[in-house]
Amino acid sequence: MPEYSYWIIAGLALMIAEFAINGLVVIFFGISAVIVGAVKFLGLLDDTAWELTLFAILSVLSLVFVRRFLADRFMGQEQQANGPEDSAGLIGQRATVAGAFQDGVGTVLYRGARWQAQSSHPLSEGQMVRITEHDGLWLTVEPWASH
Fold this sequence. Notes:
39% of the residues lie in helices and 20% in strands. It is α+β, with helices and mostly antiparallel strands. The protein is rod-shaped.
């Protein structure tokens, strides 16, 4: 098998690996390897040291310049919420106390899922509560009162 085909096969394998390895990094090594293979096929490179040098330069340049451009388009941008918004839509919902709260901490059931919860009010098992805050896996609740 000709030497250039190793570069092209390795490049294609790296590009396919990008689907398994998230981060938009490996694909640039793959593209660089395919370019080196193509340049080798055209007969413009004959020395392994130059092949490796070209591969390294192309990889670094594409990672530094192209990844920044593509990452915004393909990976999106995370934005911090401003204010008391709740992306999960839990705030204001009704839940049921799964066990009596001790020292302000207990569990609640919300749509069949058990959540860790905290409350400044004494709560007993079976009591209905309103979710007032959502922070990661923790909910802050208060007794349910019709508004």
